[in-house]
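@channel sequence for tomorrow's demo:
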Amino acid sequence: IKSWKHKNVGVSHGLSTAASRKRKTIISDNTNVTQKFYYLSIGSNIEPEKNAARIIAMLAKCFGPLVMYPFFYTKPVDIVSDNAFLNSLAVVLSSLSPVDLKQELNKIEAALGRDRSDPQCSVKDRSADIDILGREDFFDEDVFKQYQEPYISGLIEQRQNPADLRAFNLPATK
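C-alpha cells (generated this afternoon):
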C-alpha cells in the first residue's frame, strides 16, 4: 500500500489485506457498531482537478482513511456536455446507514457547489458527484466489477494513462 498525507488525513492507494476483515468500533456508550465498507464513485466536470482534490479532502475529513483509485478523464454519460469528467473510485469505512451516508455525501457535493434542489441537476455539469455503488462487510475490489457503467469498468480494467494531479497536491498515480 502506498500511503500519503493530505492535510493531516491518511489516504491509502491500493488494496490492503488488513482492510478485508470485518471491523467493529466501540462508541462512547460501549455499544458495538459494525462498520461497513462503502464503495463510491466520485467525479467532477467543473474545474475537475481542483474539485477532485477537494472531494478527497472532504471525504477524508468525514470518514478518515480512504482507499482511492487513480483518477481518469472520461466522456460525459447521460448528459450533454463538452466538459470531460475526472472520475475515480473510493472506499470508505463507516457505521452510518446508507441513507445517512448519502446525506453526508450530498453535503459534500453542496459544499462544492452542486445544487441538488435543481430538478435538472442529474443532467447538468457538476462540481462534485459522489455516488454509493455498494456496501459490504468486507473489502473486495470485485464489488466494483458488478457495475456496467463504462467509466466504472474503465477505471477498474484499464488503469492506463491516469490523470496526473501532482499540481493539485495529490500524488501521481501509477
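heads up for whoever presents: The longest strand covers residues 85-94.
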